[in-house]
Design brief:
single chain, mainly alpha, 8 helices, globular, binds iron/sulfur cluster
């Protein structure tokens, strides 16, 4: 596990579980999107993401990577579920931070559980490759658009 990812993991735990800052996940997403737009690479995934760090920490216990033909479609189920639950909780409980915190924690733990189970049975970073609700609909399009625009503009 990279030191930077370990630091983010500890900081995420501190902010979410000690400070009880319900918007910890949004803070992480903001950092990830900013990095994708500024650097044009998936630096967040490789160096900072606490979920990636947790998957890497399993190391040798990960299953050999399995090829599942339908796996590329699974994100179309998970992504709407994740963002639906996240936005619904935020708008429904924004006036009640302790309740909202519980919902955010549930969502984060569900994603963590899914990442661990898929890593154990389907291969290393299966969640990142096929399922991540941040990478597929947000980070990848942002990174590609940024690089495409810069390429079109040409050298300054
Ligand atoms: S793909 Fe998602 S879970 Fe994996 S490292 Fe990137 S942001 Fe984190």
């Amino acid at each position: 596990m990279k030191t930077t990812a370990y630091v983010t993991l500890v900081a995420t735990f501190f902010l979410m579980c000690v400070v009880r800052m319900w918007w910890t996940m949004f803070l992480l997403f903001g950092v990830a999107l900013t990095l994708a737009l500024v650097v044009g690479k998936n630096r967040f995934c490789s160096d900072l993401c606490p979920m990636g760090a947790l998957q890497d920490s399993m190391g040798q216990s990960a299953a050999p990577r399995r090829r599942i033909a339908s796996a590329r479609w699974w994100k179309f189920l998970l992504v709407p579920l994740f963002w639906g639950a996240t936005f619904y909780s935020t708008f429904t409980y924004h006036h009640d931070p302790p309740v909202l915190w519980v919902w955010m924690l549930r969502i984060m733990i569900s994603m963590f559980f899914l990442a661990m189970v898929t890593q154990m049975y389907l291969g290393r970073r299966f969640f990142c490759v096929h399922l991540c609700p941040l990478r597929h609909p947000v980070l990848e399009p942002a990174r590609r658009s940024r690089n495409h625009l810069l390429k079109k503009r040409g050298p300054a």
